[in-house]
Amino acid sequence: MAISIKVNDRCLVRHQDCKRIFGGSRTCFVACPNSDEIALELDIIRQKLREANIEPYIAVDQRDFQKDIFCEKICTKVIESLFCIVILNDVTDSSDNTRKPNANVYYEYGLMTAFRKRIIPVQLERHSLAFNIQSLDTLKYTHKNFSTQIEEAIRMTLLDIEADQSEKDDGTTEDNVEWTLDLMGLVRAEERFRFRHERVLMSKSLGFQPYIKPQTGNLFYVGIFNPIESEQDVLLRTKMLTLRIKNYCQQIQNDLSDMQQTGSVRPRTYVDERIAESEKLLTDLSEVNILVIKKNLVSPSKFTKAYAKAVKDMDFKLTLEVLDDKKIKKLLGV
């Protein structure tokens, strides 16, 4: 398999060559304020990264004397990292004893964004994001749930990286799995659906593809997983798909509210058509069926119960069906 290497040829700031390799080291750049207020979060981040065989690089901990601070301590480390974490908490400024965002952290966040890095932005739930990043997805946490939240975010990021690096072909699934989907009456969702909604749901990065059952019009998200992939990872992917669908449903609901208010501005027929289309999409997504296909499952019923437990706090649960070898053979009549 060909390995793709991406190099940053020129420095963004100085007129000089860079030649650093993107993702060239198994590190995670952590941008954060230099404050004891986040000591607990940093300890947890270090632990969870090292458990995932990733070495944390925390810039405020580094003391690289007689070196270009921006180049050696910040920029090159961002480039070479596999992904980044940004702690966006407000902290007390000792100069005037007021709480405010950290300018260095926001600068580093912008640098990561410019380099198109994978970023996990986190912020304490009671704090507020700056206006210019409020539209960006941010992990809002409490001290009670931070350990679980950051562990799942790190694992999901690594799964996404692995998915990007793999050269899976959508048509390489085994014949018996494809025949099973045919017998269930499922066909791949049309390209128009994929174009309009996959950029939001990004289900492919989780291992799922949208299918439609023409007889009923029901929407399915089908995940076909390798036998060697752990059930824990498949469960996490299924949970994250559920969360993305929930968030998308909330976005559609908000759009519907806005359209109701703009009815007097735009032609009524146009607004009614948009509302009807959005309401149908909201219904389809709220009633999605998730189909997990994986050989060597210990117990499909246990997996289903584990899913119900994993999404309990979301107050949003989708219909889940799990197929293992035994169920596939039964459907095929073999």
Would you mind describing this structure in some detail?
By secondary structure, this protein is α/β, with parallel strands linked by helices. It has 2 domains: 159 residues, Toll/interleukin-1 receptor homology (TIR) domain (Rossmann fold, 3-Layer(aba) Sandwich); 158 residues, no CATH class. The protein is built from 10 helices and 14 strands. It has a 5-stranded parallel sheet with strand order 4-3-5-8-9, sandwiched between helices. Strands 10-11-12-13-14 form a 5-stranded mixed sheet, with helices on both faces. A two-stranded antiparallel sheet has the order 1-2. Helix 1 links the parallel strand 3 and strand 4. The longest helix is centred in the last third of the chain and has 31 residues. About 2% of the residues have low confidence.
Can you tag this structure with a few keywords?
334 residues; Rossmann fold; 2 domains; five-stranded parallel β-sheet; globular
Annotate the secondary structure layout:
Elements: E1 7-10, E2 17-21, E3 27-31, H1 39-51, E4 55-58, H2 69-80, E5 83-87, E6 91-93, E7 98-100, H3 103-114, E8 119-124, E9 139-141, H4 146-165, H5 175-183, E10 187-188, H6 191-201, E11 208-213, E12 218-225, H7 231-261, H8 268-286, E13 289-294, H9 300-310, E14 319-323, H10 325-332
Parallel strand pairs: 3-4, 3-5, 5-8, 8-9, 12-13, 13-14
Antiparallel strand pairs: 1-2, 6-7, 10-11, 11-12
Helix pairs in contact: 1-4, 4-7, 5-10, 7-8, 7-9
Beta-strand proportion: 15-25%
- pLDDT < 50 stretches: 167-173
Overall mean confidence score, pLDDT: 84
Count of spatially separate domains: 2
The helix content, as a percent range, equals 40-55%
- Could you spell the SSE succession in H and E letters? EEEHEHEEEHEEHHEHEEHHEHEH
The number of strands is 14
CATH architecture of the largest domain: 3-Layer(aba) Sandwich
Structural class based on helices, strands and sheet pairing: alpha/beta
- CATH homologous superfamily caption of the largest domain: Toll/interleukin-1 receptor homology (TIR) domain
CATH class of the largest domain: Alpha Beta
The name of the CATH topology of the largest domain is: Rossmann fold
